[in-house]
Specification:
The chain is α/β, with parallel strands linked by helices and 307 residues long. The chain contains 11 helices and 15 strands.
């Protein structure tokens, strides 16, 4: 059995002079949740549309279930459930009625497919409430029910928690996790909300301006959070010279005229402070810090945080 359910090689999408996705190589492992993380406009939706054959790549290749997508769409796409943008549900029909229409249109033959899908997402079957009366969380659940109605092996969900309140986010998060852990689904989700992806995903890809900057398991990325000692001193240029000449280290970053961070934790902080003071440097603060995962993403993406 192939290790990767989704594998892309140098995937590119270009509109005129603008590259929306550039040289993207994704690796989504079977039975895991992969979070594609990036700001709005980073190329996440375009990538997912190419994975579903909704947009033709300008270059590169998509392989799903070990097969090239191009030329094998009839075999591959029925095994995928997707949520890209908002499905066109009828507001004057109930959730059950909407799903029955989509089941007929898609040729779903399983008799209890609609009922089973609604049960999985926690929505009532044959309820009288119209879609127009649904809360945002219920609408999102119905959209996911539509995606899983034919019991696909792979789910591709674009911003599944977008616009939900905190309770709705927690419910959808738990639901997506249960689909993976209890039903064995492989799931690719996109999001611009770092904190939610960190709570949900097994693996993370960071995309920015169409380029995949990082692809790693969440546990490995968390190990990259940086620990350092921050010094507030009267003269960082002088402090830097002392660290280089007396302590023989260059593992530090000068943040400003009065702030410096030292990454070499093998050095004794109290000894550094003593030498600073002996060399007539005023030390107003010494603090051991640890960057969060969000700080790491800021560094990788070049400054601004992700939502």
């Amino acid at each position: 059995m192939e290790r990767y359910v989704i594998e892309t090689s140098h995937l590119t999408k270009q509109y005129g002079e603008q590259k929306s996705v550039s040289d993207l190589s994704l690796h989504v492992q079977r039975g895991r949740i992969y979070g594609l993380l990036g700001r709005n406009g980073a190329g996440k939706t375009t990538t997912m549309k190419m994975l579903l054959g909704l947009s033709a790549p300008s270059g590169g290749e998509v392989r799903i279930f070990g097969l090239p997508l191009a030329g094998n769409e009839r075999e591959i796409l029925p095994r995928i459930g997707s949520l890209i943008e908002s499905p066109g549900f009828y507001p004057n029909l109930t959730g059950t009625e909407n799903l029955r229409i989509f089941a007929r249109l898609r040729g779903v033959t399983k008799r209890d497919a609609v009922k089973s899908a609604l049960e999985v997402v926690g929505l009532p079957y044959a309820d009288k409430k119209l879609f127009s009366q649904y809360s945002l969380g219920m609408k999102q659940r119905l959209a996911i029910a539509l995606a899983i109605m034919h019991d696909p092996e792979l789910l591709i969900l674009d911003e599944p928690i977008n616009g939900l309140d905190p309770i709705g986010i927690a419910e959808i998060r738990a639901f997506i996790r249960s689909l993976c852990e209890e039903r064995g689904k492989t799931i690719l989700i996109s999001s611009h909300i770092l904190s939610e992806v960190a709570l949900l995903a097994d693996d993370i890809g960071i995309i920015d301006h169409g380029v995949l900057l990082e692809e790693e398991s969440l546990s490995e990325l968390e190990k990259r959070s940086e620990r350092y000692v921050r010094f507030a001193v009267s003269d960082t240029a002088k402090a830097a010279r002392i660290l280089e000449e007396i302590f023989s280290t260059t593992d530090f970053v000068v943040e400003s005229d009065h702030a410096l961070r030292l990454g070499d934790l093998s050095l004794r902080t109290e000894e550094i402070v003593r030498v600073f003071v002996e060399n007539e440097l005023a030390v107003s603060e010494v603090r051991t810090c640890e960057d969060s995962l969000e700080d790491y993403f800021r560094r990788v993406t070049g400054g601004e945080g992700i939502g």
